[in-house]
Amino acid sequence: MRALQTAATGMLAQELNVQVISNNIANVRTTGYKRQTVHFQDLLYENFRRAGSASSDSTQVPAGTFVGSGVKTVSTGRIMSQGNLSSTEKQYDVAIRGEGFFRIRMPDGRTTYTRDGSFDLDAQGQLVNRDGYQIEPGITIPNNATNVNINAQGTVEVLLPGQTAPQQLGQLQLVRFVNKVGLESIGDNLFVETAASGQPIDGVGGGEGFGTLQQNYLEEGNVQAVTELSSLIAAQRAYEMNSKVITAADQMLSATSAIFRG
Questions:
Q1: Distance of CA 181 to the CA centre of its chain
Q2: Distance between CA atoms of residues 43 and 50, nearest Å
Q3: How high is the mean pLDDT in each 10-residue block of the chain (262 residues)?
Q4: In the chain, is it the N or the C terminus that has fewer CB atoms within a 10 Å radius of its CB?
Q5: In the Cβ-directed half-sphere of 82, how many Cα atoms lie within 13 Å?
Q6: From CA 83, how far away is CA 37, in angstroms rounded?
Q7: Who contacts 172 (Cβ-Cβ below 8 Å, separation ≥6)?
């Protein structure tokens, strides 16, 4: 019976939906995390009678007879909306308010991108992320520097002993993408570009199309716990309804078998 296979596709789709929701909930406190959502499409239809086809008396039927074969998952896109900014009181923490990503240089030479601005210094005084990967362009803070300041445009200034005016060390740059939803997640709060995302567009904080930077703050994940729990309940009910269809189809098959046995 076709209903068994159709309902099975629905159960598989909702199983994936629950997995995505559970990942969102698990990352509710992850810095810079962007929640995922699942998109579905219906599968192919079998046409028993096409709309507009001729009937026996040479008239056209107003509606056809179509039977679908289930559902498929077409994408698990990310919602790239702004998360709330939370104060950390750490001088190397930087949040992006608006559009843009930080550029991170990986040990293998690849360039990745992140919204996680929880930075620190390595043994050489270079500005790195929590995994020790260098920020691009590289910025080195002298070990005797005081009053490190990062303004809204990303300019890094420090005060050195014996000097009254701050010294500029460099500038944090931002990149944006035409289709940021097309970025590929690789874990560790990092993204890589794809053919769908397009080439990175360089800029600075406050530039056209770019957000501004906020020192001593981090961007929280944009997961809304209440929304995810509501989606979880809806996914669970959809799974149960598909399982009921399988049970009903099985009972119908059993009744048919009983007739033949009788």
A1: 7
A2: 17
A3: 88 96 96 95 81 70 78 93 95 96 95 96 94 94 91 94 89 96 95 96 95 97 96 96 90 79 66
A4: C
A5: 12
A6: 16
A7: 94, 102, 135, 139, 150, 154, 156, 204, 205, 213
In this prediction, residue 108 carries a pLDDT of: 93
What are the distances in angstroms from CA 178 to CA 35, 195, 197, 215? 19, 11, 6, 26
Extended beta strands in 189-237, E state: 190-192, 201-204, 212-215, 217-219
Q: What is the pTM of this model?
A: 0.86
Look up residue 261 and give its two tokens: 């046995």
Q: Where are the beta strands (DSSP E) in 193-245?
A: 201-204, 212-215, 217-219
Give the 3-state secondary structure of residue 205: coil
Distance of CA 225 to the CA centre of its chain: 16
At 113, the amino acid letter reads Y
Can you point out the beta strands (E) in 160-200?
167-171, 173-176, 184-187, 190-192
CA distances from 84 to 92, 93, 209 (A): 18, 15, 20
- CB hemisphere CA count around 154 (13 angstroms): 28
Contacts of 22 (CB under 8 A, 6+ apart): 232
Angle (nearest 5°) at CA 205 between 200 and 207: 75
Cα distances from 147 to residues 128, 169, 170, 172, 225, in angstroms, run 18, 13, 15, 17, 38
State residue 56's pLDDT score.
66
